[in-house]
Design brief:
Layout (H helix, E strand, L loop, with lengths): L12 H27 L3 E5 L5 H19 L3 E4 L4 H9 L5 E4 L13 E6 L6 E6 L14 E4 L5 H13 L5 E4 L3 H9 L5 E5 H11 L3 E6 L7 E4 L5 H13 L7 H7 L4 E2 L7 H9 L3
Parallel strand pairs: 1-2, 1-3, 6-7, 6-8
Antiparallel strand pairs: 3-10, 4-10, 4-11, 5-8, 5-9
Helix pairs in contact: 2-7, 2-8, 4-9
Length: 286
C-alpha cells in the first residue's frame, strides 16, 4: 500500500529504499579510512630481550595495543629467542621500530635508525650485586669469582661493569644468564658469586621474588633504552607513533597500562643523548 502526504509526494517502499541506499553508501565512505587501517599489515615492533618472552609480552602487548589505537598505526611485538637473535633481526631490517640500546654498538650504528623516545624515569645504572649475606664487599674481592651477566652484548649490564672491573684490575669468570631475569635467577640460586644487571630490574626482581641483594658497585647514570625507528618508515607514521608514546604519561586511559608495566611512560629523546652509551661500547671494543 502506498502512502500519500499533504505534499502529494509518494512515501512508498521504493522511496524509503532509495534513502536507505544513500545512507549506507555514506557510511561506507566514512568508514573507508578505518577499514583501510584495520587491513594494513602491522609494523614490527622489536623489544630487546631483557626479560623472558612471557614477561616481555605481559609488559609490552598492552603498551603496543594502546599505541596502535591512539596512533592508528598497527604495531605487533616481535623478538628473537635470544639477545643475539634479536640483534640479528635488527641488523637484517626485520623491525620497523625497536626498543633497545644495542643499536649504538659499532656494527649497528650505521643502520640509520632514528631515536624517537626513551623509557621515562631516572637514568639507568649498572649494578653489581651479591646475596645480602655474602662476605664480598667490593670489586677487588670478585677476582677469580663467577659473575653473571645477561649477555656479552648488554650495555648497562655488561659493557659498563666490564669497564669498571678492568679499571679495578679485576678479572672474573664470566657467566651468562641470557637476560636480566636469568642473571638474577642465577644469583638467587647462588650459582654465581655476583650478578651485573640494570638497576631498574634489580629492585623489581627482588620485590617479586622476595629475595635480598646487596650492591657492591653502582655506575654513573645513562639514559634508559630508546625507541628507534627504521629509516624506511614514513616520517608521518613515525611522528604518529612518537606522539602516542609521549602522550601515555598524561592520558588517564593509559594509567593502568603503565602501572602494570611499572613505567612512567616515555620521554622525548634524540640520538645525541646516547653519545655516552657509544663511548662505553667503544671502550670494550663494541
Amino acid at each position: 500500500m502506498r502512502t500519500w502526504h499533504a505534499t502529494g509526494k509518494e512515501e512508498g517502499p521504493s522511496r524509503i529504499m532509495r534513502h536507505l541506499t544513500k545512507l549506507l553508501l555514506g557510511l561506507v565512505v566514512l568508514l573507508q579510512p578505518w577499514t583501510a587501517a584495520a587491513q594494513q599489515p602491522p609494523l614490527a615492533f622489536g623489544v630487546l630481550n631483557q626479560q623472558s618472552p612471557a614477561l616481555t609480552a605481559e609488559r609490552w602487548n598492552p603498551i603496543l595495543h594502546y599505541t596502535s589505537t591512539v596512533s592508528g598505526v598497527p604495531l605487533q611485538l616481535k623478538m628473537g629467542r635470544t639477545v643475539q637473535e634479536t640483534n640479528s633481526m635488527m641488523a637484517r631490517g626485520e623491525f620497523d621500530f625497536v626498543f633497545t640500546n644495542h643499536n649504538f654498538q659499532s656494527e649497528f650504528d650505521s643502520l640509520g635508525f632514528k631515536v624517537i623516545a626513551r623509557w621515562a624515569g631516572e637514568p639507568i645504572r649498572a649494578v653489581i650485586a651479591v646475596p645480602a649475606d655474602s662476605p664480598i664487599q667490593n670489586l677487588h674481592q670478585l677476582a677469580g669469582k663467577r659473575v653473571s651477566f645477561p649477555s656479552n652484548e648488554a650495555f648497562v649490564a655488561y659493557a659498563v661493569p666490564l669497564v669498571a672491573l678492568k679499571r679495578a684490575g679485576v678479572r672474573v669468570e664470566e657467566v651468562f644468564g641470557g637476560n636480566q631475569e636469568g642473571t638474577l635467577a642465577q644469583l638467587k640460586a647462588r650459582r654465581v658469586e655476583a650478578g651485573a644487571v640494570n638497576s631498574r630490574f634489580l629492585g623489581q626482581y627482588a620485590e617479586r621474588e622476595h629475595v635480598q641483594f646487596r650492591e657492591i658497585y653502582v655506575s654513573e647514570g645513562f639514559p634508559d633504552l630508546a625507541v628507534i625507528a627504521h629509516p624506511r618508515v614514513p616520517a608521518a607514521t613515525v611522528e604518529r607513533v612518537r606522539r602516542a608514546l609521549l602522550g601515555m604519561s598524561s592520558d588517564t586511559a593509559a594509567a593502568s597500562i603503565l602501572t602494570l608495566a611499572k613505567s612512567k611512560g616515555f620521554e622525548a629523546a634524540t640520538d645525541r643523548d646516547y653519545d655516552g652509551v657509544r663511548r662505553i661500547y667503544r671502550l670494550v671494543g663494541q
